[in-house]
């Protein structure tokens, strides 16, 4: 059969082909009508990657954050048994489990069976190049499909908040106990430091500075006293009577002048008077009296110088004792101060630990009271109007293609079973002769007879 005869045959048998096509489409429509319809409820969640936890100290430290990995993790959480159990409890699906999921198999846990059946119809799809998750739930009931999809979104939001808040509450209790411990240690360290300062006289930070100043003053006074003592000792030596301090005394100088004058006077008298002369004897008696008085005054001046030397030595000894005592006190205070520094470091360490624990406790308390997370339900699942299964458009399109193929095949089969020559090419192929003229009988009166003969 040549191609022109086949095309002519298809054109001639168009009614048969149309009938076959309509029959196939009718069967597809009937199949679609009797098929169980599945509706899909779609709820969308949005993850805000700009939202940060106000209690997280590491929120702004520039640490790497993989949003795609986080969204995939959250998708696994949505499909977890825990979220499914929350949906069953909040929506009370156990009261209509047989209607929704069919008959429960024998020897199975009812909750586990309902969870498996519920998750079987659930799919979670991350959005392309976006921070969204689509929660899809299929059900023969469109209302139930939307209801359970929204229930999964709500249950996941609650689970996400619980995953953040519950550990914070647990840590809050631990930090409260830890806070009491570090506060007790801080109080003990402060008490020990206060008792030590009171016992050793550390009233303020200027104690050591005052003691150092006092030691400097005492050292200066001791140096001056030692110089004075050495000077007095040198002036009050074995020849104290001939020392400058004694010889330069006004009374002694006057007495020495008087002795010199009286001696000169006796020398003059000796030239004119004899040693037994009353005037000469009186002059010598007066000279002896002056010398006796000079000796007495010299002894008194020497005694006064000895007293001054004794006082200077005593003053030097006293200052030496004070300096030694002050040095000993400062050595003791230096040792005590080192011990006090250790106690102060203990107090500072205890205070630092207390501040750190109280800061973390405050952060945990805030995190335990956070009202929301970084996930929000962007779209609530509406009640679907068009079923997602079966796909009517796809079935009709496939039915049309299949019906068209069947119609063409049927027409070709009928033409092959009873072949006819319908074109000049067909005549030439069948007889080998060339057609000279063609007569059109379609509008003639013999056309019905030709159709009956055919």
Automatic annotation (TrEMBL):
The keyword Transmembrane helix applies. It is a multi-pass membrane protein. Residues 338-411 form the Tyrosine-protein kinase G-rich domain. Keywords: Cell membrane, Coiled coil, Membrane, Transmembrane, Transmembrane helix. Residues 3-89 form the Polysaccharide chain length determinant N-terminal domain. The chain crosses the membrane at residues 394-414. Residues 208-235 form a coiled coil. It is found in: Cell membrane. This is GNVR domain-containing protein. The lineage of its organism: Bacteria, Pseudomonadati, Pseudomonadota, Alphaproteobacteria, Sphingomonadales.
